[in-house]
Design a protein that fits this description.
The protein has helices spanning 13-16, 41-45, 120-126, 141-145, 261-264, 277-283, 304-310, and strands at residues 2-4, 48-49, 58-59, 71-76, 88-97, 103-112, 134-140, 159-170, 191-192, 201-204, 210-213, 225-231, 242-251, 257-260, 268-271, 291-296, 319-329. It is mainly β. It has two domains: 2-170, Chitinase A, domain 3; 181-329, Chitinase A, domain 3, CATH 3.10.50. Strand 13 (242-251) and strand 14 (257-260) form a beta hairpin.
């Protein structure tokens, strides 16, 4: 069952300040062994410009903001149900550098509320939230980003301000089963399709491995772009399936490979709800045997600018994936 809250402008920004003292006091964590992040004077003082669910928020609180420990407050209280362990939560997430208010990352994220899916600090913040809540938190950068703080351009001694607008929560389903290697296709097989002009070209080796060539002088799309290159006639991939693919990824700017299951010598299997949108949106609705190209901008289905930098890429790099769908298992 999916529990949602309409993305409505709850009230003018000026009125939000009056709710900043609202807190999660008295709320019990939905996960055994996890304690709700405590409320503090700093988290209560955080103010933002932007409606609930807005793609871009602005930190209004005077900087620098510095906290010695994690603290969190509910600045907008929703009317939905409290999230529960193993829920898949959709949240509009914004991260700010507490030193200067700079936006480090902003976008919708699918998060699994479990110790396997989230860092301990995130569990403490989200396990006490309800659908429709805006939870504002602050913590030392070293606690949130760890050794990656410098890659985000943040001093580990500074603090990170985090905002989670909890848009929906879906109860956990049983994990889909698995397939053995011999049950998978070796490569995409089906009817070749004619892709749109101006997109990268793909040449296939005898074993099916793709070589991706970026068109010279072409500008990368600024929106997630999915093209079917081969149309298979197998089962349709559904949301929540465990899907098996062989893939290769290159950076549009350089044409260089940065990741490839082909190079590792074996396909990879994953649940469609546990990967970036550039993968899940490219695969759900496709059929086994198909080959698809997914062109993924940082902020539309990708890792975000900060995530790209963390991986050693440019913040505006566009990733190009070619994926062969070799098998799928539906969730029960």
């Amino acid at each position: 069952m999916k529990r949602s809250r309409a993305l409505l402008a709850l009230m003018p920004v000026a009125m939000v300040a009056g709710l900043l003292t609202a807190c999660s006091g008295g709320v019990t964590s939905s996960i055994d062994g996890v304690t709700c992040a405590p409320e503090g004077e700093i988290s209560k003082s955080l103010e933002f410009k932007g409606d609930f669910g807005a793609e871009k928020l602005e930190l209004k609180t005077k900087t620098p903001i510095k906290a010695k420990d994690l603290q969190a407050s509910t600045s907008i209280k929703g009317d939905g149900e409290q999230v529960t362990e193993n829920d898949t939560i959709e949240a509009q997430l914004s991260l700010f550098n507490g030193k200067n208010g700079e936006v480090l990352q902003s976008g919708k994220s699918g998060l699994q509320l479990s110790s396997q899916g989230l860092q301990p600090w995130a569990l403490e913040v989200l396990s006490c939230a309800s659908v429709g809540d805006r939870v504002a938190a602050v913590a030392p950068a070293a606690d949130v980003l760890g050794d990656s703080a410098a890659q985000f351009g943040v001093d580990p001694k500074d603090s990170i301000v985090m905002v989670f607008d909890v848009l929906s929560a879906e109860q956990a389903k049983a994990e889909p089963g698995t397939l053995k290697p011999e049950e998978l296709l070796k490569k995409a097989e089906g009817e070749a399709q004619k892709p749109a002009a101006g997109l990268p070209t793909v040449e296939l080796a005898a074993d099916g491995s793709p070589t991706i060539t970026i068109p010279e002088g072409a500008t990368a799309p600024d929106k997630l772009t999915v093209e079917t290159l081969i149309k298979g006639d197998g089962e349709k991939v559904q949301e929540g399936d465990r899907v098996y693919v062989n893939y290769r990824g290159v950076i549009w700017r350089t044409g260089e490979e940065f990741d490839s299951s082909w190079s590792r010598g074996e396909p990879i299997g994953f649940v469609t709800t546990g990967v970036i949108g550039g993968f899940s949106k490219a695969l759900v609705g496709q059929t086994v045997g198909s080959q698809v190209m997914s062109i993924v901008p940082a902020e539309d289905g990708g890792y975000g600018a900060a995530g790209l930098q963390q991986q050693g890429h440019q913040p505006d790099d566009v990733m190009v994936f070619v994926l062969d769908i070799l098998g799928t298992v539906h969730a029960e």
